[in-house]
Amino acid sequence: MKDLAAALTVMAHIGYDPMDNTTALRPSSSFGIDYSEDVFGGSLRDLRFGLLEGFFNRTISNETTPVNAVMDHIVSVLQNAGAIVVPITESVYNATSIAFLDVQTSEYREDVNAYLQMQSLGGSQPSTLNRLYNSGKYLVIPSQYDYVQTALISSTSNASYAPTKLAIQNLTTVLRTTFSSNRLDAIIYPEQKNLVVKIGSPSQSGRNGILAALTGSPVVTVPAGFSPSTVDAPIGVPIGMEILGRPWSESMLINIASHISSLTHVRRMPAFANMSVEVRSYSSVPTVTPNTGNIPSVYPIGVC
Fold it and tell me: Which helix (H) or strand (E) holds 9?
């Protein structure tokens, strides 16, 4: 959380970006914040968390049961710390149906074209996504082939684009209403309904991150626990929990995540790295000279 707060502090010193219209909505109170201060102080007592029941798969299986068990434990941790957990059962919170509101395929080609044609990009490259794709230098993994093929022929002029954008706005309004009507400080749910798939798998099912992505809500993911160990996963499979907040509530989310992390301590070293460090042989201590040319003057460069 300290690393996250430090990175967010740097980003918070960037003002209006003409390439990102959302930055025009940023309140002055969110500019120039030192988020590192939010890692400390405060408590979870009396905070109200909404638990999205629709973001769970309650089917009993080796893939879903560990996730549900870990989330049940986290809920008990929050309650023991004095927090209040409110079940949210509204049918609108269904990650599977919300996923159909994804408009990336309509926006992708136009956005990439705009990027490739930026004056500041420099160098030599194709000026459009179609030219880049047809150049043979655009690698597409098999599971994303249909996505890219759709994006190559789609745009924001598609008949379905405007109604879908309106549905996203309605979802955003419903989310804000859920916060207000339940007097919530944050909303929690498992990062995924089921365990992370094995390396090399073609895709990952059960993702829940679509809610934050579509509504533009700030969200932080914290380690929540592990599944039972297996032959393929000796220390278990890591399970995460997302904490979603109102717009511009990053300070609160960092503080909440910091408290949860300090109460759970669930992170584990991989078995192959436990109590061992790979060290190369050097005849002398190598000299490392960092590139500090892009560090803003507001951050003093100390001597380590």
Answer: helix 2-12
Which residue type does 190 have? P
Q: What is the per-residue pLDDT across 182-198, written as a single tens digit (0 to 9) for each?
A: 999 999 999 999 999 88
Helix 250-264 and helix 2-12, axial crossing angle in degrees, nearest 10: 170
Structural domains of the chain in order of their starting residue, each with its CATH number: 1-36 (no CATH), 41-98+158-267 (3.90.1300.10), 104-155 (no CATH)
Q: pLDDT averaged over the chain?
A: 89
Q: Tell me the HSE value of 34 on the side-chain side, using a 13 A CA sphere.
A: 5
* Cα–Cα distance for residue pair 189/245, rounded to 1 Å: 12
pLDDT, one tens digit per residue, over 131-177 is 988 887 777 777 788 888 999 999 999 999 999 999 999 999 999 99
Q: Residue 8 in 3-state DSSP?
A: helix
